[in-house]
Amino acid sequence: MEKxxxxxxxxxxxxxxxxxxxxxxHGDYLFKYALMRLRDPAKAEDAVQETFLAALKxxxxxxxxxxxxxxxxGVLKNKIYDHYRKAxxxxxxxxxxxxxxxxxDRFVPDGLLKDGWIHELGPxxxxxxxxxxxxxxxxxxxxxxxxxxxxxxxAVFSLREVDGIESKEICALLHISESxxxxxxxxxxxALRRCLDTNxxxxxx
Amino acid sequence: MNLLNPVKxxxxxxxxxxMPSCREALRLQSEALEQPLPPTRRPGLWLHLLxxxxxxxxxxxxxxxxxxxHAHADELTQxxxxxxxxxxxxxxxxxxxxxxx
Lengths: 205, 101
Description:
The complex is a heterodimer of chains A (about 200) and B (about 100).
Chain A: H1 2-9, H2 19-38, H3 41-58, H4 65-90, H5 129-132, H6 136-148, H7 151-162, H8 167-174, H9 178-199
Helix pairs in contact in A: 2-3, 2-4, 3-4, 6-9, 7-9
Chain B: H1 4-18, H2 22-32, H3 42-51, H4 53-71, H5 73-76, H6 86-97
């Protein structure tokens, strides 16, 4: 059996469970963790695979199952981080062109009331927004609005608002500062709100 | 008429010290979703929101979007299963077996 060959030529440290079982024991939660952050099943699978391979090379000894689990998550986090770091070398993650204010046409440009809403253009109340959550068409509209966001800003919104990942972790993943993150979230929220206002809530009688 | 400009500027600056503009108020409300605002900023924002219904609506609406997105994540993420597919499992197992010594 393969296990015997492994112990003869390359003995695993005591306490490390059999690699044959890793996929069964750890595969699913590692995949789910990676999928939430990478948002792509193929990339998530690769990250899990690389994590297991690194575990084999590393060959740590563990006190128990939970130590094994947290070590694997630690390695996986690094793999995810590497992925984002590589991606950010190709395109800037701060999407500077998106920093043009989405709503700049709706504020008073100068004078005493500078930067206030132009009277007729301010947000109006949404009637019973909760009721929209049951509508398929509402969610299609939401998805269409999200698709209009620049990819990196959409990713930040998803990580933070859909998956609920902590700001600090997002910053570490994407190699951006907290203030960068907040500006991107502000822009995303502003654009989504406006898009839904125009295409859904504003159209209700 | 030009004499009024410094007065207008001073009023504008003075107001700004006490209370954010609408533009600022939107940014502050978004930031407040991430971490508590600095205490010095809170009274001004509170006053602004008391007086400005548009900014109030804005704040309600971005909070609604947060709640909606989080509570209905399934509507917004692709309908992919949250577990490794059988093909992926087997592929990874093979890779682990074939590892270089």
